[in-house]
Amino acid sequence: MALPLLRERDLSIPEVIKEIENGLPVSSFTTVRKDLGLTDKELAQIIRIPKSTLAARKKKGRLSFEESERLYRIERLLNKAVHVFGDLDMAGKWLKQKAYGLGDIPPLEFARTEIGAREVERLLGRIEHGVFS
């Protein structure tokens, strides 16, 4: 049985850091991909894992530290979007659609960097509090 996603576990920040440093299981990639309704190729592009590297990670069973950190970034945004919209499907749709508040760039695309992800989080915060965005 695969470990549940970090968002589904009651972990402290130091424990989350340790999980990421050890490399998240590939099953986390699969779960996030399914939750977002993406293909392997689409999520791999978002978190910048080449196709051949993803195949190797699937055999190994774990992502690298850097890949885990980028996957966790997307997981964190998905969790925040679910909180704001109250529904996994709505959250996934919002993350994939062009967002006016991000210059008509889809939030998942905007979140390819940490600074972009933080801007997506700020936009979700404004939406959550009813600020026109």
Structure description:
By secondary structure, this protein is mostly helical. It has one domain (13-128). Helix content is 65%, strand content 0%. It is built from eight helices and no strands. Helix 5 (65-85) crosses helix 6. The longest helix has 21 residues, at 65-85.
- Number of DSSP strand runs: 0
Query: Which radius of gyration do the C-alpha atoms yield?
Result: 15 Å
Element-by-element helix/strand order: HHHHHHHH
Give the distance, in angstroms, between the N- and C-terminal Cα atoms.
Answer: 41 Å
Please outline what is shown here.
By secondary structure, this protein is mostly helical.
Features:
8 helices, 133 residues
Give a topology summary.
Layout: H1 13-22, H2 26-36, H3 40-46, H4 51-60, H5 65-85, H6 88-96, H7 107-110, H8 114-128
Helix pairs in contact: 2-5, 5-6, 5-8
